[in-house]
Design goal:
alpha+beta, 104 residues, globular
């Protein structure tokens, strides 16, 4: 994977408070897991969300998996830190941990 893609990913997740790498867009998710992730973030009150559609660029799609060492998409980043995919987001949402993290 090119350093350019890794640098772009790092810059994206560190410059924006909440970033979701997903399949599709927030308005039109292309898989159930991405749709669930968007729903959770909306329910958590996130308004300043940056989404990256990995279906638009194969290098980004592969690069994000290498960047996080996580094999699946969606992937949530908060303040530059990798949080996890939709299962982890669901657990954190249900426990209240996600809301706490997003408000910090």
């Amino acid at each position: 994977m090119s350093d350019d893609v890794q640098n772009w990913i790092k810059q994206t997740v560190t410059e924006h408070p909440v970033v979701l790498f997903m399949k599709g867009t927030a308005q039109f998710p292309q898989c159930g897991f991405s749709g669930k992730a968007i729903h959770i973030l909306k329910e958590s009150g996130v308004t300043d969300l940056i989404t990256v559609n990995v279906l638009d660029d194969d290098e980004v799609r592969q690069g994000i998996k290498e960047y996080s060492n996580w094999p699946t998409v969606p992937q949530l980043y908060v303040k530059g830190e990798f949080i996890g995919g939709s299962d982890i987001m669901t657990e954190m949402f249900e426990s209240g941990e996600l809301a706490t993290l997003l408000k910090a």
